[in-house]
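Q: Hi! First time asking for a complex rather than a single chain. Here are the components, and I think there are two in total. Is that enough to go on?
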Amino acid sequence: MSGVADDAARTGASVSSSPELFGRSRHAAGDGPVLDLRGVVKRYRGRSAPALDGVDLAVAPGQVLALLGPNGAGKSTLVGIASGLLKPDAGAARVVGVDPHRKRSIVRSSVGLAPQEIGIYPALTVRQNLRALGEMYGLKARRARERADELLGPFALEELADRPAGELSGGQRRRVHAAGALINAPRLVLMDEPTAGADPRTRSDILRVVRAAADDGAAVLYTTHYLPEVEQLDADIALLEAGRIVATDSVGGLVARHAETALLLTVVGRVPDAIRTAAGATVLEVPLVGDAGASIEDQADGEASPAPSWDAADAADPHARTIVRVAGGDPSTRLRELLVALGDEAPALDAVEIVRPSLEAAYLALTGRRAQVASDVAAAEQAA
Amino acid sequence: MSVIESDVGTPAKRTRDRRGGMSGVRAIVRNELRILRHDPVPAVILVAMPIVLMVLLSNAMNLAIADEGYLGVTGSAQTVPGMACVFAFFGAGILAFAIFREHGWSTWPRLRAAGLSRRSLLAGKVIVPAGLLLVQHVVLFVFGVVLLDLDNVGSWWLIALIASCFTVVVLAAGLAVTAVFQTVQQVNAVTNLGAMVLGGLGGGFVPVRSLPEWVQPIAPISPVNWAMDAYRAVILDGVGGPFCGPDAGCRPLSDVLIPCAVLLGFAALFTLIAVLFLRPDQPKRTWG
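A: Yes, that's all I need. Here is the structure of the assembled complex.
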């Protein structure tokens, strides 16, 4: 049983994929991919590096594909192309077999999108927001009303249905926003960091419904920085780095192929040569915590910032921290060797962490960056 | 090629697409009306403010109208169409804001992701402000006739024609403003200032003849000037009215139709600007 299903069993919430909720079980497992990207390239004015550089990706009915990658890797651009909002400069994008940028009517009936930023009408009630979105997607007024009512329960919005969306908390707004992506019972669900900054209950509700949508036959492309969610969703993974897919696999496959035990050393000020030159050492970027990604429209305007590359060793600030990953060998032995080699410079070492084979370790090995891990999620939840 | 794609281009498919476009327009109109119900203040101001000014200024305009040789005519012949034109221009801001707020609420990408074409999006956005402007004209003229002794000796159909042409100009100006400017503060400044300057310059507050001499030659750059010319030809000179037969020596119908054609020319110019500069994927900044 997936983590989401466990969660649902605990809370007593319904994860059943009833035809009433998602409209059908339309897609046989043998269907071709609902989303199919081949050699997709996308460039923005004023940026030398392409946002997407020859991306091949497919999402099949019933599959949740988690798109991981640091900020600026191209996740939102990819979602923009899949939804038809952006046009690739080269390559082909197909949704249910047609170009989503050219055939908007197909997108209308087949794609549901929850963009990164929460988009709701604050003056309208929750129910009115969902109805309005349903009508935009071409549902008749009566069907849009019914559909909005169907989605209130799974997203725990029943008691809030007649409250203006502007009066809701951040997490409640996040749920309304995510529900909007399912209003047209789409064959392809695109969710761009739907749980960013969300509280535990919201996170749990959204994950549960996303999993249920996939169980019902929808293809789901789900971008996130939170690795625990990927495991909870029982999702496959595509790892995007600097506009390229660097790995596509199941969680188990990715861990088996790319994760290895490593030491993470946090160094204050200049990185001592003993660490910098140690076998298997890589200077990492600082952890990227929080939602600093640019919106699709920002990127379309070429305003997105490139991913930061911070190496405190080269910075003037003597108090800046740098994280160094040292892979290979037994971690205890490696640490002992490093401490001996550091000698008088040992105080520069601020923290030491051993990373065991895990999705986080695989992410670290493939991207050279730390992902948001369980502790970050817990901290975000606490803050929320 | 999939079955779905092979259907593209057939007459049935094209009809379905057109229906899809219409349902998108209807959906946006319904949503605009929902939002208007929740916040009717801008619409109320669009109607209430000119009424207040009409009441305050009509007596003062009696003399200005008499000065032009129209004896026994009330000042409402100037203030009713004048205030209608000046305050209709605020409708350009209302239309622009209806688009800008979608960016502020981050709902614009959702509308676009819903598969609505640019044409459907804009058509849906234009319809409610268009209705508001027409309602504004009706309310102001009815108020003028009932309470300010406005006596239209010309044709009410021609009044409706002029109001419609002017509404088209205002809506096209709203789209042009949306296309050209990037922040809602810019839109507010341009539409508010534009309404006052073009309204004043075009004879919306006082007749052009009462303006300084150096201003009078440049009055035609304002659409309000052309609308007021046409309104005056109908209301004061009776064009199209029962007393304006072939031998009555009235001003010709072309004195209304030519200004209307010029108004449509303004509308075409503004629409061209909108078409050239309006990009649906262009981010707009609203608050902050």
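A: Chain B touches chain A through 35 residues (CB under 8 Å). Let me know if you'd like any chain examined more closely.
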